[in-house]
């Protein structure tokens, strides 16, 4: 369902939700009984590997714009395996006034289920204002690989305003809860030496695996601008900054290969 706010409301935006549900197919694979696109978010089943079903998010129109309220919901039920990526970067663009755009991602992963959430970067274009939240609920035996990348401004331009929040619960208990803000209106110092140090690409890779309870990776630096941190739970978080999207991806991909 997609709705456009009527004229005179002060909100010139689109409201839309895309949904996917993954379940075991009984033959060692995964099927998708729910695959619903919404507004500018088109979900397409693409070629998976092994037990994984794969879904690619395709942008059907320019979004998110100011005033848009977009959401993606993914549920991976017990024993299923789902990989989600995107066909291109998401670009947050200025709207015609009104409130900031919102983009909410809600992920649920059941017992012995596996989710790989690997979208392309989010680009915060000059003049845009986006609030993005990602909330993940994991069963105790669930596995997760989640990548987030933010590019602050297109080539040669300043960043828009971007606030992101990532909340992860495992077996109902908090595993990670962090909020980041960049661009005009963000708390002072966001671009200083203690945060980005002038870099314009930033990202993180979160890996949750029950095996880490017994053999947690050691916290360590990954080059000059990245760090791998073992969390207080069966998880590791890789945080990195870089001068551009290509260098950022190389760091995060290198870390991901370490975990398979």
TrEMBL record:
Keywords: Chaperone, Cytoplasm, Nickel insertion. UreD, UreF and UreG form a complex that acts as a GTP-hydrolysis-dependent molecular chaperone, activating the urease apoprotein by helping to assemble the nickel containing metallocenter of UreC. The UreE protein probably delivers the nickel. Required for maturation of urease via the functional incorporation of the urease nickel metallocenter. Its main location: cytoplasm. It comes from the Bacteria. Belongs to the UreD family. It is found in: Cytoplasm. The keyword Chaperone applies. It comes from Streptomyces enissocaesilis. It holds the Pfam family UreD. This is Urease accessory protein UreD. The gene is ureD.
